[in-house]
Amino acid sequence: MSEFDTAPRSTRAAVLIPFAIVTLIWGSTWLVIRDQISVVPATWSVSYRFLVGGLAMGAFALARRESFRLGTTGLLFAAGIGLFQFVLNFNFVYHAEGYITSGLVAVIFAMLLIPNAGFARLFLGQRMGRQLLFGSAIAMAGAALLFVHEARVDPAGPARALTGIALTIVAILSASTANVMQATKTAKRFPMHATLSVAMLIGSALDAIIAYSLNGPPVFEMRTGYVLGILYLGLFASALAFPLYYRVLRAIGPAKAAYSSVIVPVIAMSLSTVFEGYRWSLLAGAGAAVTAVGLVIALKARRPNR
C-alpha cells in the first residue's frame, strides 16, 4: 500500500479531482490539435496557443496578487520550462500529427511514465521499483506493435510512421524534462501561476521566432473551428490544465503524475476512431492492449518512486 492509499480523504481528493480534470481535457486535445495544422503552419498554431494561455495565466496571477518579480534565477527557470514544455514538446507533437493519427500519438505519449520515472531517479533520487521497470518494458513492446501496424497500412511505407513516432518520442523527452524541473526545490520557490505565465509567453515568443524563420510571416485561419480550437487549447488545455497537473506532480512525484497518460489514450483513440476514421486491426488492437497492460502494471507498482 502506498502513501497515497493511506492519505486522508481530503488529501486524496485534492489530487484525484485535478488529476481527473486534466486527464479529461488532455484526452480531447489530440483531436483539436489535428485540426490546428490543416492550413496554419504547426509552429504558428503553437505560438498562438501559448500566447492565449500565457495572457490568461498572467491575468489570473494578477488577480491572485502573485509577484512577477522572479529575479534572474526565476526568469531562467521559466525560460527552461518555456523551452522544453512549450516549444520543443508541443512543436514535435504538432508535427508528429502530420504523420500519424492523433490517437496513435496519444498512445505513444502514454510512455511519458518511463522517462519521468527515469529522470526522477537520476535527478531527484526517487527510486524505481522492479514492477515499474517491468511494466514499462511491456508498454514499449506494445508501442512497437503499433509501429509495425502503422508501417504496414501507410501507403508511404514505414518511413512515415517511423517519423511520426520519432517526433513523438522527442516530445516525450522534452515534456519529461520540464516535468522533473517542476518537481525540484527551485520550482517551489516561485509563485506557480506567475512563473507559468512567463514561461508560456517566453515559449510563445520562441515559437514565433522559429515559425517566422521556417514559414515566413504569421498565418492565421479565420475559421470558427480554428479560432475556437486556439481558445480551447490556450484557456482550458494550457492555462487551466498545466497548473493543476504541476500541483499533482509536486504532490505525488513525476512518475505517478504521468499515470494520467495511461487514461488519455483511451479518450484520444475513441475520438480518433469516430472523427478521423481510424480503423482497428488485430495487430493495432494487440499493440494498444499490450501498451495498456504494461502501463497498468507499472501503475500498480508499490511505491514506484520513494
From TrEMBL:
<feature type="transmembrane region" description="Helical">
    <location>
        <begin position="12"/>
        <end position="33"/>
    </location>
</feature>
<keyword id="KW-1133">Transmembrane helix</keyword>
<feature type="transmembrane region" description="Helical">
    <location>
        <begin position="281"/>
        <end position="299"/>
    </location>
</feature>
<comment type="similarity">
    <text>Belongs to the EamA transporter family.</text>
</comment>
<dbReference type="Pfam" id="PF00892">
    <property type="entry name" value="EamA"/>
</dbReference>
<keyword id="KW-0472">Membrane</keyword>
<feature type="transmembrane region" description="Helical">
    <location>
        <begin position="45"/>
        <end position="63"/>
    </location>
</feature>
<protein>
    <submittedName>
        <fullName>Drug/metabolite transporter (DMT)-like permease</fullName>
    </submittedName>
</protein>
<dbReference type="GO" id="GO:0016020">
    <property type="term" value="C:membrane"/>
</dbReference>
<feature type="domain" description="EamA">
    <location>
        <begin position="163"/>
        <end position="298"/>
    </location>
</feature>
<feature type="transmembrane region" description="Helical">
    <location>
        <begin position="100"/>
        <end position="120"/>
    </location>
</feature>
<feature type="transmembrane region" description="Helical">
    <location>
        <begin position="161"/>
        <end position="181"/>
    </location>
</feature>
<dbReference type="InterPro" id="IPR050638">
    <property type="entry name" value="AA-Vitamin_Transporters"/>
</dbReference>
<keyword id="KW-0812">Transmembrane</keyword>
<feature type="transmembrane region" description="Helical">
    <location>
        <begin position="132"/>
        <end position="149"/>
    </location>
</feature>
<feature type="transmembrane region" description="Helical">
    <location>
        <begin position="193"/>
        <end position="214"/>
    </location>
</feature>
<feature type="domain" description="EamA">
    <location>
        <begin position="19"/>
        <end position="147"/>
    </location>
</feature>
<feature type="transmembrane region" description="Helical">
    <location>
        <begin position="226"/>
        <end position="245"/>
    </location>
</feature>
<dbReference type="InterPro" id="IPR037185">
    <property type="entry name" value="EmrE-like"/>
</dbReference>
<dbReference type="InterPro" id="IPR000620">
    <property type="entry name" value="EamA_dom"/>
</dbReference>
<feature type="transmembrane region" description="Helical">
    <location>
        <begin position="75"/>
        <end position="94"/>
    </location>
</feature>
<feature type="transmembrane region" description="Helical">
    <location>
        <begin position="257"/>
        <end position="275"/>
    </location>
</feature>
